[in-house]
């Protein structure tokens, strides 16, 4: 299930973050707190059951002025024990719903070697528009910049989280 990320979830998020992104400066608790507090951000949580612990999280910013918004995905993460179960797709769907409500294109960066994430994004209409060399630090891994064009109507087959 997908619901709102809350301050009570953030310690668990830092644990997942440290496990998944140890080589690339995982976000500290203070980073999650700041992200959750920002008015232009929406953060969601994946849980196996209502009221259960967070097993994944995702966040998106809505930037710009009404009528000229852009969205930027800040993060999508699912703990290793639940990867491949559809939680990443459900989290992405929730973020895309935010963008679709304001008719905004969506931008993101993804490691060039993260084939599973790249495939998920491509299945959801994202295209590679550039490469950022040494984007992730301290590992020095490259990132693709990907974008999905703004949607003004719900596409056929779009699943709700």
UniProtKB/TrEMBL annotation:
Name used for this protein in its record: Ribosomal protein S18-alanine N-acetyltransferase
Keywords: Acyltransferase, Cytoplasm, Ribonucleoprotein, Ribosomal protein, Transferase
GO MF term set: protein-N-terminal-alanine acetyltransferase activity
UniProt family annotation: Belongs to the acetyltransferase family. RimI subfamily.
Pfam families recorded: Acetyltransf_1
Highest taxon of the lineage: Bacteria
Xref: InterPro entries: AcTrfase_RimI/Ard1 (IPR006464), Acyl_CoA_acyltransferase (IPR016181), GNAT_dom (IPR000182), YpeA/RimI_acetyltransf (IPR050680)
Domain N-acetyltransferase per the UniProt entry, residue ranges: 1-151
Species of the source: Gordonia hydrophobica
GO cellular component, one term: ribosome
PROSITE patterns reported for this sequence: GNAT
Gene3D superfamilies noted in UniProt: 3.40.630.30
EC number(s) from the headed UniProt entry: 2.3.1.266
Gene it is expressed from: rimI
